[in-house]
Design brief:
By secondary structure, the chain is α/β, with parallel strands linked by helices. The chain has one domain. Helices cover 38% and strands 15% of the residues. The protein is built from four helices and three strands; from the N terminus they run αβαβαβα. A three-stranded parallel β-sheet has the order 1-2-3, with helices on both faces. α2 runs parallel beside α3. The protein is globular.
Length: 104
Amino acid sequence: MLARAKAAGLTTKSSIIVGMGETFDEVVECMADLRAVGVDIVTIGQYLRPTSHHVPVARWWTPDEFAALARIGEQELGIGHVEASPLTRSSYHAKSAAARTGER
């Protein structure tokens, strides 16, 4: 679907939630897969357990890890914009992120 949206000329964006048991390398691999289908913007945020009835947080990611993911995504993988922090959510600064990628 993302590849088809990009082929149609749309700006594409996807989000990743971390803290549910994934590894750093798995998140980088996911970003690489997203870039391979043309995704322009990726947001990465920390999973926050909404209630005691939900899955517990497996681990808390550090600010340095979020910064590293953003750097890898933009500089090494060529994603137009990666917003990554503990409180980043799906539409976090969406308009400014789109502007940074040169998309409208």
